[in-house]
Design brief:
The chain has eight helices and two strands. The chain is an all-alpha fold.
């Protein structure tokens, strides 16, 4: 049995304008328990013929139980009502995807309801972006002075590297310009790793002294 023997009233929503309901604001759940066979029949009418009357009957029968299920999961009355409308809208649009061989109507409906609630929770916990966050503001263009200074510094480093012995210059370029690890450099140059590290250290020290003006070649 899908619904127990009880009566409950539920407000209609404007989220399903495609369905023509009666003018009453509330509807009553049928007193007798609804068998899955009946629900399957109503789903098939909606899927095959987009039967608005069948959909209305289906909504009246399953709506309160779905809403109650959502509230048991922790949703407030208002949220549960909104989610119910989303569930039934999905049923209206995707009723043809229901496969009786895979699951009962009740299982299918509760799965949709659970997924709708999960989607809602994911949206709630997703951090909101602050438009004033500096990380979101575009980088400011460098001033002409900064651009000129950067170019001068780059030219100074290039000239200093050219003053290094060829062997040291190669190591510096591979390390800082090509961003290669010491082990990769050792493999490419077929040199022991210890030798590579030692020579890079010597080359770096010499380059620093050239940039500081301590060496005049």
């Amino acid at each position: 049995m899908f619904l127990e023997n009880y009566i409950e009233t539920v407000d209609f929503s404007d989220k399903l304008p495609c369905i023509e309901y009666k003018q009453e604001k509330h509807y009553l759940v049928l007193k007798s328990a609804v068998k899955d066979k009946e629900l399957t029949y109503l789903i098939s009418r909606v899927a095959d013929f987009k039967d608005k009357s069948a959909f209305s009957d289906l909504f009246k029968l399953v709506g309160p139980r779905i809403k109650g299920y959502l509230m048991k999961l922790g949703s407030s009355d208002i949220v549960a009502e909104d989610l119910l409308q989303e569930v039934m809208l999905t049923v209206w649009r995707r009723s043809e995807t229901f496969d009786r061989a895979k699951a009962a109507v009740s299982t299918w409906l509760f799965t949709i309801a659970r997924n709708k609630r999960i989607d809602m929770l994911r949206k709630e916990i997703r951090p909101q972006l602050d438009p004033l966050d500096p990380m979101l503001t575009p980088n400011q263009e460098d001033s002409a002075d900064n651009v000129y200074s950067s170019k001068q510094e780059s030219l100074k480093i290039t000239n200093a590297i050219e003053q290094l012995p060829d062997e040291q210059a190669v190591l510096i370029k591979m390390t800082y310009y090509e961003d290669k690890s010491h082990s990769n450099i050792a493999n490419e140059l077929r040199m022991p790793l210890g030798t590579v590290k030692s020579r890079i250290r010597l080359a770096s020290n010499r380059l620093r002294k050239l940039l500081e003006g301590q060496i005049y070649d």
